[in-house]
């Protein structure tokens, strides 16, 4: 890996307006691997102007032309999937196998849009009027860093599919992934100005994009605190804001659940990507009648998690940065201080790992839902086990959260499983080890955000509704 010192504006690589840079650090080693340009307000102005000019012609492309473009993007992405996976691993320390899975998922999400687009009713006659679905305009897109291959794709490609033009502000700690992504779109022949990218800090380039009067929509994924500020910044220009924010997902293990399936869901969901997953089931709700059995099974499974060099065959690599590592340590200390039972893991690094920002896979038992580790999103490999007495109490605990992004239910009685799923206040519920479906609407209740991504729902976020009467 090397330096990332140019933006992508108006169909070409562009020199930044000034020479300010930051170090790019490999989280698995702590070593500096390059320099990143820090985009300025002037760079954002140039990118938005290019997108605004391009919208005039790009928005008029036929559905067939947009489908053809998406097919070219998918083909080029597939060709570069190994490069994208390597970039993700270099950026944030995701194990190579998981980075490749996320790149493959990104390709799959594009191919789903290729299937959806020709069947979508962009114009529909209803009685005495016609309803038209038209591209909203210039979309400012701000993805997070934790799954960059998929999350850049899930913002940019649906916007292009809808006929919008785009300005991407990728996460500053995932610059290599952003570089590969821009190269893919360039090689696929995205029309000049339809896709633009400004690299740098969210507090500067992201803020300038959010406030820009010529941006029609902002799509942001990240923390709730930043999402609140983005909504405030966007309010002055009354632009649409769609957001996927924080999560503190509950996994309700019902008394009749199959232990093997439930434990696999719990452990893989939390420990995958070092816990840096917004939908991770970090609150695992277990019946008191099976408390000892489940604590023992989950602890054993977590202790079997392999941690180490993400270029090797391990399940878990480092967390993304020193800052994130310190955050995880503070939360582990809070769990200890507030009286939760430390079942495994704890402070510091795994004993057999040297260098980098590796955290210990950690499980707390006897957690109560008012503890800090049960209330706040940690974004690290820390699992809280909360005991309940009745299913009604479990549902109440699951809903007693400011967040509502994802929930999980494990149980043998399918009628009860679906009843519990219907009562949980979350934007998506996974039953008995089900995997994410990239065509199903995805987004949050409460402080987990607004709007939806993926499939038809993701396409529609980028459209305006016009009624033509007569």
3D architecture notes:
The protein has 470 residues and is an alpha/beta fold. It is 40% helix and 20% strand. The chain has helices at residues 41-58, 63-79, 81-92, 96-116, 148-162, 175-187, 202-211, 224-235, 259-271, 291-303, 322-337, 372-375, 391-399, 414-423, 455-460; strands at residues 7-9, 12-14, 21-25, 32-37, 123-126, 129-135, 138-142, 165-168, 195-197, 217-221, 240-244, 250-253, 283-287, 341-344, 362-365, 382-388, 403-404, 406-410, 428-431, 445-446, 449-450, 463-469. The strands form six sheets. Strands 14-15-16-13-12-18-19 form a seven-stranded mixed sheet, sandwiched between helices. Helix 3 packs across helix 4 (96-116) and helix 9 (259-271) crosses helix 10 (291-303).
Explain briefly what this protein structure is:
This protein is an alpha/beta fold and 470 residues long.
Could you outline the blueprint of secondary structure elements for this entry?
Blueprint: E1 7-9, E2 12-14, E3 21-25, E4 32-37, H1 41-58, H2 63-79, H3 81-92, H4 96-116, E5 123-126, E6 129-135, E7 138-142, H5 148-162, E8 165-168, H6 175-187, E9 195-197, H7 202-211, E10 217-221, H8 224-235, E11 240-244, E12 250-253, H9 259-271, E13 283-287, H10 291-303, H11 322-337, E14 341-344, E15 362-365, H12 372-375, E16 382-388, H13 391-399, E17 403-404, E18 406-410, H14 414-423, E19 428-431, E20 445-446, E21 449-450, H15 455-460, E22 463-469
Parallel strand pairs: 7-8, 7-10, 8-9, 10-11, 12-13, 12-18, 13-16, 15-16, 18-19
Antiparallel strand pairs: 1-2, 3-4, 5-6, 6-22, 11-21, 14-15, 17-20
Helix pairs in contact: 1-7, 2-4, 2-5, 3-4, 3-6, 4-5, 9-10
């Amino acid at each position: 890996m090397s330096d990332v010192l140019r933006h992508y504006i108006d169909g070409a690589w562009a020199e930044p307006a000034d020479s300010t840079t930051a170090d790019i650090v490999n989280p698995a080693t702590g070593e500096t691997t390059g320099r990143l340009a820090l985009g300025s307000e002037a760079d954002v102005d140039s990118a938005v102007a290019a997108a605004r000019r391009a919208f005039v012609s790009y928005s008029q492309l036929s559905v067939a032309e947009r489908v053809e473009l998406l097919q070219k993007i998918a083909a080029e992405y597939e060709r570069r999937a190994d490069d994208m996976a390597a970039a993700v691993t270099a950026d944030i320390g995701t194990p190579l196998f998981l980075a490749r899975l996320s790149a493959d998922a990104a390709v799959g999400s594009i191919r789903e849009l290729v299937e959806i687009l020709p069947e979508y009713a962009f114009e529909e006659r209803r009685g005495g009027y016609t309803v038209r679905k038209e591209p909203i305009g210039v979309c400012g897109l701000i993805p997070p860093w934790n799954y960059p291959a998929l999350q850049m794709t899930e913002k940019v490609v649906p916007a292009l599919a809808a006929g919008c033009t785009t300005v991407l502000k990728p996460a500053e700690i995932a610059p290599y992934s952003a570089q590969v992504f821009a190269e893919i779109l360039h090689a696929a022949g995205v029309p000049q100005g339809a896709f633009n990218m400004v690299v740098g800090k969210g507090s500067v380039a992201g803020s300038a994009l959010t406030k820009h009067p010529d941006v029609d929509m902002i799509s942001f994924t990240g923390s709730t605190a930043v999402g609140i500020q983005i909504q405030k910044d966007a309010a002055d220009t009354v632009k649409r804001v769609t957001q996927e924010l924080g999560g503190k997902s509950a996994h309700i293990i019902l008394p009749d659940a199959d232990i093997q399936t439930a434990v696999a869901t719990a452990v893989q969901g939390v420990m995958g990507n070092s816990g840096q997953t917004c939908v991770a089931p970090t609150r695992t709700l277990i019946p008191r009648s099976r408390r000892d059995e489940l604590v023992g099974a989950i602890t054993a499974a977590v202790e079997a998690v392999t941690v180490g060099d993400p270029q090797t065959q391990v399940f878990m690599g480092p967390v993304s940065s020193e800052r994130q590592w310190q955050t995880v340590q503070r939360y582990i200390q809070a769990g200890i201080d507030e009286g939760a039972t430390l079942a495994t893991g704890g402070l510091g690094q795994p004993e057999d790992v040297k260098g980098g920002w590796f955290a210990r896979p950690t499980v707390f038992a006897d957690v109560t839902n008012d503890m800090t580790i049960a209330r706040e999103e940690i974004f690290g490999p820390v699992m809280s086990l909360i005991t309940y007495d009745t299913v009604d109490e479990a549902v109440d605990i699951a809903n007693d959260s400011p967040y509502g992004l994802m929930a999980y239910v494990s149980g043998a009685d399918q009628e009860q499983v679906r009843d519990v799923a219907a009562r949980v206040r979350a934007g998506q519920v996974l039953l008995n080890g089900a995997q994410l479906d990239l065509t199903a609407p995805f987004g949050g209740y409460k402080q987990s955000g607004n709007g939806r991504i993926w499939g038809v729902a993701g396409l529609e976020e980028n459209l305006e509704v016009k009624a033509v009467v007569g």
